[in-house]
Design a protein that fits this description.
The complex is a heterodimer of chains A (257) and B (305). Chain A has eleven helices and two strands, in the order αααββαααααααα. With 257 residues, chain A is mainly alpha-helical. Chain A has one domain. Chain B has two domains: 223 residues, P-loop containing nucleotide triphosphate hydrolases (Rossmann fold), CATH 3.40.50; 77 residues, Alpha-L RNA-binding motif (Alpha-Beta Plaits). In chain B, the strands form three sheets. A six-stranded mixed β-sheet of chain B has the order 6-7-8-3-9-10, sandwiched between helices. Chain B has a four-stranded antiparallel β-sheet with strand order 2-1-4-5. A four-stranded antiparallel β-sheet of chain B has the order 12-13-11-14, with no helix packed on it. The chains are: A mainly alpha (257), B alpha/beta (305). Chains A and B meet through helix 1 and helix 5 of A and helix 2 and helix 3 of B.
Chain lengths: 257, 305
Amino acid sequence: MNRKVYLTAYNTIVIKEVGRFVRIWIQTILPPAISMTLYFVIFGNLIGPRIGQMSGFTYVEYIAPGLIMMSIINNSYANVVSSFFGAKFQRHIEEMLVAPIPNFVILGGYITGGIVRGVIVGIVVTIVALFFTKLHITHYMIVISIVIMTSILFSLGGLINGIFAKKFDDISIVPTFILTPLIYLGGVFYSIDLLPEFWQTVSKFNPILYMVNAFRYGLLGVSDINIVTAFTIITIFIIILFYFSLYLLNTGKGIKT
Amino acid sequence: MKALEIHNLKKTYANGVQALKGIDLEVSEGDFFALLGPNGAGKSTTIGIITSLVKKSGGKVFVYGYDLDTHSVDAKSLIGIVPQELNFSQFESCIEIVVNQGGFYGISRKLARERAEKYLRQLGLWEKRYDLSRTLSGGLKRRLMIARALIHEPKLLILDEPTAGVDVELRRSMWKFLRDLNNQGITIVLTTHYLEEAENLCKNIAIIDLGNIIENTSMKYLLGKLNTETFVFDLKDPLEKKLSLPDFILNVPDAMTIEVEIRRDQNLNELFDVFSREGIYINSMRNKHNRLEELFIRLLDKNNS
């Protein structure tokens, strides 16, 4: 009985979440397509040929997986943080809190919304990339699993940000001051082999390096880091953030007085 | 069967404000119950705890026998809430809001759509079902929240000031709608600042002030405790001389108005005799406050003194 109720509630949250970002596609789907087109034009076509090859690939081929992953990370995070904080701000989060839905169902619904947006934007950016370079998938399962896992991880991050946020400024602080630097320094545009040994070691503390490299391995078959290590680290982060999110929802942090 | 039982409910907010100091309350199945109190008395905190939006500091809440702490899914399924503040997405249509709420209660979309049509029609919102909620008038937004609260057909409906800011005509039609719901067997708990509303609709009443229940009884019994009523008489001609009514408590706010407090053992005939004798002609008369309002003010004064 309860399982059916929970499944219906979960589906409803997903429908609501997906409907929300599709309704405002000009703000959610279109911008990454435009900004990635600019990245490919500038770094791929204009500057790329002067850089030459990287890890045996043209520069535009090399950065394509990183740019796709960057879009997935940004969009899965942005979807959940803006939706959850918006629901708090307009108080319609209460629609779920008064209903007989366990918090893990609410969490699952928001994460799925983040995954769906991350995947849709990832597909759009991949289509854009195909106008500039050829892409072939070397390891399908790695590509699919790393996209899903990265979306889950950053959806959780967005939710935690949304829970703690008290004003609109708070939902842009993390993406601006933490996420963007980590992405840019996470091996999107270069191989860490180019860095001095000290900075290579420092880079290995950046979790996004593992996601970008695992995804690049899935597409191109090359990576700066060990794939098993990458999956292990991502899994550990997901488990930690999942239970932390659930703890925050269970204690009513930021949503109950 | 008790629809709602509250035992020793306490709430202290993070800023140290003690909103509830251990209240006890029982609402029987089928009741139309008024929870009244001045602003900041603890009404919305009580409702917030019952609906799981506010964390309690102590005490117990049972909904149709289900403990909110241990059987929250069963308890929540039985409650419908119409909150004081608007709390739906401003960017969704009326039908989306109501159908999605059904989904949160585990109702299939097909059934939720059927019920949404039923309640949106009953509340005069069906023609506006595809309108974005933010485009509705204040009264229609409140009706939308009632439709949303009914989508899972709750046994206990809680309304926190449902007619605040609603015009008289709409308020009267909402009263009729709520009376019909109660006649169908839905237990209703109502908070309102319109004491006329509570007097008209409710069978039982609790008055809360400063975090304590200061009165909890039937409306009939409470109104029966009113020993005096104040009547206002509008005069035909200005009062020319000082009026003396030894048996009555008299107030003359202006030359065209007399206010008289009349005890239950007195009657208006005596008063009219005096008016006739003194050559005072009355154009109209009315109660100064409605009866519940009179009692309410006295109870609060007593509690605060």
